From TrEMBL:
Any one of the GO CC terms: cytoplasm
Alphabetical list of Pfam families matching this protein: Ribul_P_3_epim
EC number assigned by the record: 5.1.3.1
Gene for this chain: rpe
Any one GO biological process: pentose catabolic process
InterPro entries: Aldolase_TIM, Ribul_P_3_epim, Ribul_P_3_epim-like, RibuloseP-bd_barrel
Gene3D superfamilies: Aldolase class I
Source organism of this protein record: Shimia isoporae
Record lineage: Bacteria, Pseudomonadati, Pseudomonadota, Alphaproteobacteria, Rhodobacterales
Annotated cofactor note: Binds 1 divalent metal cation per subunit.
Keywords recorded for this protein, A-Z: Carbohydrate metabolism, Cobalt, Isomerase, Manganese, Metal-binding, Zinc
UniProt protein name: Ribulose-phosphate 3-epimerase
Active-site feature positions: D39 (proton acceptor), D177 (proton donor)
Pathway: Carbohydrate degradation
Task of the protein: Catalyzes the reversible epimerization of D-ribulose 5-phosphate to D-xylulose 5-phosphate.
Amino acid sequence: MSFDRSIKIAPSILSADFANFGQEIRAIEDQGADWVHVDVMDGHFVPNLTFGPPAVKAFRPHVKTFMDVHLMIAPVDPYIEAYAEAGADMITAHVEAGPHIHRTLQAIKAQGVKAGVALNPGTPVEAIEHVMDLADMVLVMTVNPGFGGQKFIHSGVEKTRRVREMIGDREIHIQIDGGVTPETAPLVAEAGADVLVAGSAVFKGGSVDNPEVYGANMKAIRDSISG
Ligand SMILES: O=C(CO)[C@H](O)[C@H](O)COP(=O)(O)O
Ligand SMILES: [Co+2]
């Protein structure tokens, strides 16, 4: 299959109803989500705690599209196999989470899943220059990781442009995560991003009983780009 450079929306289930993940995942996919973004936090690398491998395994049967697992944990290497076995289609690790990002990306690829490398807002793009050949995706964080609902950090737009230049003609996705809304999505899409994570902007105002709101929220993001 040829590389898909079209805009993809990846709702973060960090903003879903935690008592109802199966229905929430089905609702966002029925309403047009392209990927499902799962935020794994350890209370150490980031000041919040979320999903261990058993939780991710429980999400798996509900995900019909693509399960994108964002690991905000340190150390990361001891847990790669468990998250791959839990059913991740892509595992993204932070370059800041350990001294050996090259080894980490090799370990992800060795599990037969796609590998993403994430950059915190304060990390320069040069930190990933020498691992581009191992990456299927670069994640540009536009908030400091740990929580949903934060304000978009605008330096991420120029950073996205620089990542785009660094990628050249390689088949590597650029994902933006944090504060994506109909106001900020066109800025990063224009700079070269193709995967937009959105938590609060997708889930706000909706529920599994009123899922059309999720669809309308995703449409507002897509329309802001095509417009
Ligand atoms: O990785 C994350 C936080 O660390 C989340 O994916 C991100 O914050 C999404 O939430 P929102 O769209 O509400 O900013
Ligand atoms: Co995330």
